[in-house]
């Protein structure tokens, strides 16, 4: 930090004393690196907002339909670094969305926008840390049930934290852990359209083989049971899961994008040259989940189009690179 060496005063410092210096440390600039970003109808049911997390700050922007781009609305400081950021839509269309986030020190908050005051209010908050447990190497992963029956956090190896929700989407005051057999978990998500909350996990075993597996969450029993899909091996470089609104899950790998829906699997090669592509981020383009925007580590954008039948069965995957 900058150093300040005030002039010695005769009343406090003898003239024969050596010069004294003090160090003063201050954050001169606000965080600028974006760690998380989501789109939601946060400020109103008919609004389109971009919510950006930058370490200890949360920014809310409005997407202007007139073509002027983004209009900043809120810039809120947070007491903690954001580890996960998700959209919670318990009331469906016609109601504003809520924002769920957790921090690196295992605190969580459910945030809403108060239209009267123009400020962000906290609907629920709590501490989900455990006294025992080894923090997972991949960092925290949040997963929200599409039918808003519960949400979960993977923070420690072999454990999955469940926060149940009431019928109206309000989070219950209790949270509990369920034990998972997968110790090295890479990603997870909840599947859509299942009678019970069903979790899809991407994990790696001791032989460095990666698998896709499903679990059903029994809230009353506070346990996990085998899911409807059998465990299947996936590409060794598989890194991300994307739950599809019509059922099934996308598995992103360095060389392919595959769609799994139980026994059926559709795959598409990413690069014709065979060069690896490391996907970093994704976003849904259409509400029905038939088009997705993907981004890799080099900043290249792709559009993934999914062909469906009338019965929501996947017939094709098409990956198009943008900007060329």
Count of individual helical segments: 0
Kindly state the percentage of residues in helix: under 10%
Shape, principal axes of CA atoms: globular
The main sheet comes to:
5 strands, antiparallel
Number of strand elements: 27
The average pLDDT value, as a whole number, equals 88
Integer-rounded radius of gyration: 23 Å
Which consecutive residue ranges, at least 5 long each, have pLDDT under 50? 1-13
Helix and strand content put the structural class at mainly beta
The sequence of SSEs as H and E is: EEEEEEEEEEEEEEEEEEEEEEEEEEE
* Strand residues, percent: over 45%
Q: Give the N-to-C terminal Cα separation.
A: 45 Å
Give an overview in words.
This protein is mainly β. The chain contains no helices and 27 strands. A hairpin with a 4-residue loop joins strand 12 and strand 13.
Q: Which helices and strands occur, and which strands form pairs?
A:
Layout: E1 3-4, E2 22-23, E3 36-40, E4 49-54, E5 57-64, E6 69-77, E7 82-88, E8 98-103, E9 107-114, E10 119-127, E11 141-144, E12 150-154, E13 159-164, E14 176-179, E15 184-190, E16 198-204, E17 210-218, E18 223-226, E19 232-233, E20 240-243, E21 249-252, E22 256-261, E23 264-269, E24 279-284, E25 291-296, E26 301-308, E27 314-321
Antiparallel strand pairs: 1-2, 3-4, 4-5, 5-6, 7-8, 8-9, 9-10, 11-12, 12-13, 13-14, 15-16, 16-17, 17-18, 17-19, 20-21, 21-22, 22-23, 24-25, 25-26, 26-27
Give the tags:
324 residues; 4-stranded antiparallel beta sheet; mainly beta; disordered N terminus; 0% helix
Put the structure in a nutshell:
By secondary structure, this protein is mostly beta strands. Helix content is 0%, strand content 49%. It has strands at residues 3-4, 22-23, 36-40, 49-54, 57-64, 69-77, 82-88, 98-103, 107-114, 119-127, 141-144, 150-154, 159-164, 176-179, 184-190, 198-204, 210-218, 223-226, 232-233, 240-243, 249-252, 256-261, 264-269, 279-284, 291-296, 301-308, 314-321.
């Amino acid at each position: 930090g900058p150093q300040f060496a005030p002039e010695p005063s005769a009343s406090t410092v003898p003239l024969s004393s050596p010069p004294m210096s003090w160090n003063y440390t201050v954050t001169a600039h606000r965080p600028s690196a974006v760690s998380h970003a989501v789109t939601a109808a946060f400020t109103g049911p008919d609004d389109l907002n971009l919510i950006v997390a930058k370490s200890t700050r949360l920014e809310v922007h409005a997407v202007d339909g007139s073509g002027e781009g983004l209009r900043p609305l809120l810039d809120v400081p947070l007491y903690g670094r954001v580890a996960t950021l998700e959209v919670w839509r318990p009331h469906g269309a016609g109601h504003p969305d809520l924002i769920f986030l957790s921090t690196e020190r295992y605190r969580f908050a459910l945030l809403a926008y108060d239209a009267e005051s123009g400020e962000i209010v906290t609907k629920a908050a709590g501490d989900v840390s455990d006294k025992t447990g080894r923090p997972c190497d991949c960092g925290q992963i949040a997963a929200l049930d599409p039918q808003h029956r519960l949400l979960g956090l993977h923070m420690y190896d072999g454990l999955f934290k469940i926060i149940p929700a009431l019928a109206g989407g309000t989070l219950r005051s209790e949270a509990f852990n369920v034990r998972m057999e997968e110790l090295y978990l890479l990603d997870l998500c909840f599947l859509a359209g299942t009678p019970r909350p069903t979790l899809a996990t991407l994990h790696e075993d001791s032989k460095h083989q990666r698998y896709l597996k499903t679990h059903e969450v029994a809230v009353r029993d506070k346990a996990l049971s085998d899911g409807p899909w059998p465990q299947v091996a996936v590409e060794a470089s598989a890194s991300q899961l994307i739950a599809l609104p019509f059922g099934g899950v996308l598995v992103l790998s360095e060389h392919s994008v595959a769609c799994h829906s139980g026994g059926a699997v559709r795959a598409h090669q990413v690069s014709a040259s065979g060069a690896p592509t490391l996907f970093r981020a994704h976003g849904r383009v259409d509400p029905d989940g038939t088009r997705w925007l993907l981004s890799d580590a080099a900043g290249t954008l792709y559009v993934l189009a999914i062909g469906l039948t009338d019965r929501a069965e996947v017939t094709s995957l098409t990956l198009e690179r943008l900007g060329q």
